[in-house]
Amino acid sequence: MSATNPSARLSKAVIPAAGLGTRFLPATKATPKEMLPVVDKPAIQYVVEEAVNAGLTDVLMVTGRNKRPLEDHFDRAAELETQLARKGDHDRLAQIRESAELADIHYVRQGDPRGLGHAVLCAAPHVGREPFAVLLGDDLIDPRDPLLERMAEVRREHGGSVIALIPVEPEQIHLYGCAAVRPTETPDVVEVSDLVEKPDRGEAPSGLAVIGRYLLDPAVFDVLRWTEPGRGGEIQLTDALRVLAGMPAEKGGGVRGVLFHGRRYDTGDRGDYLRTIVRLACERDDLGPDFRAWLREFVTKEMRELR
Question: One Pfam annotation, family name (predicted)?
Fold first, then answer.
């Protein structure tokens, strides 16, 4: 096990997409949660677009049963394209072709749902011994706040692995992985000394939560192969990162965190999913003006009725 060159070009992204989406049942009974629309695009497309904007054009999706719509969405739809071309609907034709031309997308099945760490391990044959990104589909990062690009800068400078951290309220920390950190000379970068998966409020080592963006040294695969199931009986990526944090740099160790204060949209919770749609719709040039006017009228009426 040895470290990769910190300046090695990042080109591969892994997107775990094998979850059952039980929080959104019954909508996700037959539709993958990653395909739920956020305004007029499925959530997964925002994630792929983020990877591509950061220069990651080789994308591997780790899927499971009933995820065929993901493959169909990022494939060509010849019959639909022919119909739209015949009608002269060039705007919609461009929109549906865009998803098929975004990136070089591959798929691998995670046969048993054994946790995020196992999903990442499923990517090992495709990734090889290159550094790579992991993007979780529940977190959408606003393109105006290029988080992955900043994480790549930190990796080029220091090597090892890089995770994204946000400050959260103490009553929310049990929902996340939590990092124990040491400050560095760079204000938005910390050294990670330990991680705890979904700690109880009194046991959290800090108020910094891990969100769904990782740049990982391939040494993580060697660690994951012997990582025992942890919280929830699953192989946790957090547990592997704990080991990497204590390993020497020449063996691919070291974990740093980028403190992210930009715009992040959580689509894994039903309430936050709805708020995400409202926020993004309000900012659209084509939808925003009419939608904001309706929203003001709706909220005013609701407030009046509550008095």
Answer: NTP_transferase
For residue 194, what are its two tokens? 């330990």
DSSP assigned state of 128? T
Residues with Cβ within 8 Å of 300's Cβ and at least 6 positions away in sequence, in order, are none
Cα 288 to its chain centre, rounded Å, is 26
| HSE-CB for 174 with a 13 A CA cutoff | 5
Say if residues 239 and 118 touch (Cβ distance below 8 Å): no
| Per-residue pLDDT tens digits for 108-145 | 998 877 889 999 999 999 999 999 999 998 899 999 99
Torsion (CA) 24, 29, 32, 36 in degrees, nearest 10: -50
Residue pair 105/59 in contact (Cβ under 8 Å)? The answer is: yes
Q: Residue 7: is its pLDDT beyond 80?
A: no
Domain layout of the chain by residue ranges: 12-268, 269-306
Please, what sign has the CA dihedral across residues 130, 111, 61, 138?
negative
Residue 177: name the closest of 220, 231, 222 by CA: 231
Homologous superfamily of the 12-268 domain (CATH): Spore Coat Polysaccharide Biosynthesis Protein SpsA; Chain A (3.90.550.10)
Residue of 50, 40, 39, 49 whose CA lies nearest to 277: 39
Q: With contact defined as beta carbons under 8 Å apart, do 227 and 145 qualify? A: no
Whether the CB-CB separation of 15 and 127 falls below 8 Å is answered with no
Residue located via tokens 């592997």: 240
Location of structure tokens 């939808």: 287
Long-range contacts: 167-171, Cβ < 8 Å, 24+?
167/207, 167/208, 167/209, 167/259, 168/207, 168/208, 168/209, 169/207, 170/201, 170/204, 170/207, 171/201
Residue 184: is it exposed, middle or buried by C-beta count within 10 angstroms (0-12/13-18/19+)? middle
